[in-house]
Amino acid sequence: MKQLSSAQIRQMYLDFFKSKGHDVMKSAPLVPQDDPTLLWINSGVATMKKFFDGSVVPKNHRITSSQKSIRTNDIENVGHTARHHTLFEMLGNFSIGDYFKEEAITWAWELLTSPDWFAIEPEKLYVTVYPKDDEAKRVWREVVGIPSNHIFEVEDNFWDIGEGPSGPDSEIFYDRGQELSDLPEDDPENYPGGENERYLEIWNIVFSEFNHRPDGTYEPLPHKNIDTGMGLERVVSVFQHARTNFETDLFLPIIDKTAKLSKESHYGDNPEKDVSFKVIADHARAVTFAIGDGALPSNEGRGYVIRRLIRRAVMHGQKLGINGTFLYKLVSVVGEIMKSAYPEVLEQADYIEKVIRIEEERFQVTLKDGMNLLDDLIIKNQKENNTILAGKDAFKLYDTYGFPFELTKEYTADAGLDVDKAAFDNEMEKQKQRARAARSNAKSMGVQNGLLTDIKTPSEYIGYNSLVAEGALKDIITDDKLVTEINSGTAQMIFSKTPFYAEMGGQVADKGVIKEQNGQVVAEVVNVQHAPNGQNMHTVKVLKPMASEKTYLLEVDQAFHDKVRKNHTATHLLDQALRDVLGSHTHQAGSLVEPTYLRFDFTNLGAVTEEDLLKVEEIVNEKIWANLKVETVVTDIETAQKMGAIALFTDKYGDEVRVVKIGDYSMEFCGGNHVNNTNELGLFKIVSESGVGAGVRRIEAVTSKEAYTFLAERNSLLQETANKLKVTQFKEVPHKIDQLQEQVRQLEQQKKAIEAKVAKQQAEAVFQNVQTINNKTLIAAQVNVSGMEQLRQLADQWKNQNLSDVLVLATTAGKGKVNIITAINGASVKEGLKAGDLIKTIAPLVGGGGGGRPDMAQAGGKKPEGIQSALSKAAEWLEQQG
C-alpha cells in the first residue's frame, strides 16, 4: 500500500475514474439547490438524483466526484467514536444507465489493488454481498478472483430509501489487523460486516436496478445505475495507519492549532480532553464549509445547525481551558488542509472568520445568561430538597444556551444534584420529531420514467435570434403515452425547431401559440420545460386536431418575452451592484424573472440598509443610462472562466457555454434571454427587501413601464399627502410632518397632565369610600380615566398612602372595552391573599381574563355592563377569605 496524503488520495480516485471515461463533477455547495427534501447535501448521490430518477439525462453517463457532505443526526457521537463526523467527503463513481456490476466491481478492485493506483494488498480486502445477488457473487469470484472465504453474505446489503431507484449493494472491507481490534479474535462479531474495529468498511457499491413503486412493489428499472461511496476520512485513516480518522492529515493540523490556543492541554494526554479536541476539529471543518457555501447562524433550519456546532465547539474549548473567542482562528487551518480541492475556503477566509467570531461573541453573552439560569436552578432545587434536576430544565440549557448534557450534569454534580436523563432524552426526541415534521414531504427521489428518458428526438432552440419558427411536431405525449395525433386536451410536445424558451435559471418559460401553415391557431403554449435529454418540451392546450411529423408555425408572445428579457438583464446588473456595495461574499441564492417583476435572492449577514439599497439602485440605473451594449459570447467553459465570467453550480453547462457580457460591468454564464442594450430597460426600481431564510435576503424590483407605474403611484400618494398637509411643494412635506408630530407630542403631554389631574381629583373621592369586610379594608370603584396606565397611577397613589388592604378599580377603555386592576398590600399578601386570584375571579364578569403578581394584577374585558357585578364580586371574594 502506498503512502499517500488525503489530497493525493482524493485526486488519484478522480483521476482513475476519469481514465475510465467519467466526467469529474465539482463538489456541489452544502446548501441544497432546488431540493426541499434536504437540509444539507448529505451524500454524493444527493447531487445525482435528477440523473437517477430520469428527470435529466446527463451528457456523459459516467460521472465521478468528491462531494462534501453534512450529517448531524448523530452529532452526540462526534468525538466519542473513531469515525463519526458532521462534515465528510464522499468519493463516488456513478453510472447512469451505462456500465453495471462487472465494470463497477472490477474497476473498484483495480483502483484499490493495482500498483499504478492505491496498491493495497489484496489479501487484506474482504467483501460482503446481498445473498440473492448471484451476479455480484459471480463477478467477485470468477472475474476478480477473490477467494470464497473473503466473501460474506449479509441480508442488510440492500439499498432502499423508499420510492424510486433501489437495489442490492456490495461493501468492501480492509483488514487492519487484530492489534487494532476491540474484540477477542474468536468473538462472533469479529468478521467483515460485524461490529468491530478490525475490519473497516471503506467502499460501498450500490447496484441500482429496481424501481420501488408507490404501492411498495419492485420492478426492474428501465435504465440500471451504479452509485458508489467511499468515505475519504475513512480511507485516509487506512493509508496513514491511524487508529481513528482524527489521527490523519485531515484533522491533526486543526488539533495541533487548538492545542496551541489551549496552552494547558495536549492531544493524547487525557481521553476526556481528547474528545473535546476531536469535537472542535470536526465542528471547525463543518462550520467553515457551511458558511463558505452560503449558510449563516440562526435559530432555525440549517442556520440552527451552524449555531449549535459553534456553541458545542466553544463549550469544548472551555473544557480545554480556552476562554473567549477562538474557533474563528481555525478557519485558515481548515483552508490550508483543503486548498488543493477547495481553494475557495482560503479566498473567503476573512468573511467566514468574521461570521464565526460574531457568533462566538454573541454566545459569550448567552453563556453568562445560561450559567446564571443554572445557578438559579441549583439553588431552587436545593431549597426544595430536590436531588434531581428536571429533564426539561436540562434541555432548556442545552437547546437555548448550548449547554451539552454532560456539562450540566458536571455542574449539578458539584452541587449534589443528579439530572433526569430519561426526561432529557424525551425532550430531545420531541425536538427531532419537530424537525422532521418541518421538512418538506416532497418525495426524495422520483420513480424513473423510461418513456421520457428514451425520447432523444433532436430539437433546436432558435429563440435567441427569432420568436417565430417552423417546426415539425416530432413527439406527442399524453397520459404518459406516445401518440401520433391528438384532437383536444393538454399534451406535451417536442418540435424539431422552436423559438419557445424552456424555464431555466430563474427565467420563466415563454408563452404563445401554435398555428397551421394557413395561420389558424391550433394550440396555446402554456409552459415549456426541459425534457430529460434536454429538448424543449412544450405543454400545450390543444384547440384543433394536431398530428406528429406535420410542420407547424410556432409564435412566441413578443410583449411577454420582451418584458421578461428586460427583467433578466436587470438581475445581472443587480447581482453585480450588490457585490459592489455589500462585498464579494454576497452571491446569488436564487432568482425569478417574470414579465411584471423580478425577484433576486442573495446571501448576506443581515438586512440591507436603506442607504445601501439606494446605492445599489443608483448603480443599476447608471448602467442603464450608460447605454451599455449587451453581448453574448459562446465559448468553452475554461475560456469563459478565464474571462472572469461568474458561474452558478446549479446551472447545467455543456461543452459550449453562453457568457452574457454587459459592457465592462457584468459577465455571467447564462442561457437566458437579454436585451441588446441596457437603455431598453429604461428605469429600475427596488420595491422591497426582506429576509427569506438564514442568511438569505430577497429583493423584488421592477423595470421599464412597471417601474414608471410604481413611481407614478408613489408620486400620487405624495401629492395626496401634500394636499392634506396644505403645502405647495413636495420638499415641504417632511418639515410639515415634523411640525405636526411636535404638536401631537405637546398635546399628548397636555392630555396626560389633564388626565393626571382628573385622576387625582377622582382619587380623593374614591379613596374615601372604604369598606371593611372580614377584618380587611377594601376600596372598589369604577373611575373615569383613559385606560390601564391611569389605573396603575391610581394604584401607585393607593400604595404610597396605604389607604386600604385591597384595591379594585375599573374603567371603560373605549367603546366596548374594560380595564380592571387589583392590588393587595404587603401584609395581606403575607397572609395569603393574592391579587392574581382576585382578578381571575372577577374578570369573567366583564367578559375577559387576566393575571399578575400577588401584590398587583390586571385584566381586560369586553362587557362594560358587567363592571358593577365585578366590583360586588370582589367584596364577596374578600368575604370568603379567612
Give structural notes:
The protein has five domains: 239 residues, BirA Bifunctional Protein, domain 2, CATH 3.30.930.10; 158 residues, no CATH class; 98 residues, Elongation Factor Tu (Ef-tu), domain 3; 134 residues, Threonyl-tRNA Synthetase, Chain A, domain 2, CATH 3.30.980; 119 residues, Diaminopimelate Epimerase, Chain A, domain 1. The chain starts with 5 loop residues before the first helix and ends with a helix. About 1% of the residues have low confidence. It contains 24 helices and 35 strands. The longest helix has 35 residues. A hairpin with a 2-residue loop joins strand 30 and strand 31. The radius of gyration is 35 Å and the shape is globular.
